[in-house]
Automatic annotation (TrEMBL):
The chain crosses the membrane at residues 40-65, 77-96, 121-140, 152-174, 209-230, 242-261. It holds the Pfam family 7tm_1. GO terms for cellular component: external side of plasma membrane. It comes from Sarcophilus harrisii (Tasmanian devil). CDD domains: 7tmA_CXCR1_2 (cd15178). Residues 56-305 form the G-protein coupled receptors family 1 profile domain. Belongs to the G-protein coupled receptor 1 family. PANTHER family: C-X-C CHEMOKINE RECEPTOR TYPE 2, CELL ADHESION MOLECULE. Keywords: Cell membrane, Chemotaxis, Disulfide bond, G-protein coupled receptor, Glycoprotein, Membrane, Phosphoprotein, Receptor, Transducer, Transmembrane, Transmembrane helix. Interacts with IL8. Interacts with GNAI2. This is C-X-C chemokine receptor type 2.
Amino acid sequence: MAEKYIVSEEIWGAEFDNYTDIIPTDAAPCTQHSWRLDKYFVMVVYSLVFFLSLLGNSLVVLVILYNRLNRSVTDIYLLNLAIADLLFALSLPIWAASKVQGWIYGTTLCKFISLLKDVNFYSGILLLACISVDRYLAIVHATRALTQKRHWVKFICMGIWVLSLLLSIPILFFREAFLLDVYGYVCYENFGKNTEKGRLVLRMLSQSFGFVLPLVVMLFCYGFTMRTLFEAHMGQKHRAMRVIFAVVLVFLLCWLPYNLVLVTDTLLRTHLIEDTCSRREVIEQAINVTEVLGFLHSCLNPIIYAFIGHKFRHSFLKILAAHGIVSKDFLARCNISSSSFASSSVSTAV
């Protein structure tokens, strides 16, 4: 029989990865009656993101797999990034329904769906870090031969998936379906009693290796890469890098606020900043909003490729022309020179 807990309303709004304490019934929780996101609005957003992500990332996977001859190292990383977003998108209908119905799917599915979310985030930022290193070596040090060894890239991608799973392992141990007095069952962490120290250690490890370290790598690599491009006046190479810069920027805009909120919450739990009910309430509200922003990211990369990635549009039109969906005359009228999209040291499939 599930143990009953009393929690604030904002804990339900945050739904998952909000590490606010689950308070036993014999304790006195903070009383909170403030604003939170409307559950029907969140459900609609999750549903829209699901359809866009499923369609867009499926097209990205199709285009990269189809374009075998011109597939670069960066393309392989972007392929894995699309697969990660695609897998996460499959969980969104369940999270959308749970916003309205409550968590009616049991502990096993709670663990699995939460695992998908964490693996998506960690694999995403680790893959982007690898892309930054690849571009840094290719442009700053001009080591094309090293960056184009595809068999190494496959092992690196396998290592990223394994590391992402390891960083997400705590979800399998601590995520459960809880019965709450007001809301029924929810999918939430159960760390038990007097485990604040263990919780903080796990969070700091995941944030350090799964967020801070990859972010530092990206800032270092792209800082020197951009400086080299501008100093050498590499106009064509700079244009080829626009898609990668856009992908990284959008990832940070979507996930950086969420992780900064978690870092702030960690400081609160370690009492490096004063722990008060009002500050917990603000953090819980921030998690509600930034979590939705993070989920939105899974559908944005294909939109970037479609609007900025000339090579992606050209490759997609070639697939349509090969299957008779559009005519070759239409492809020619697009006035896209296939030679301008040939794979180079800085080209990507997008």
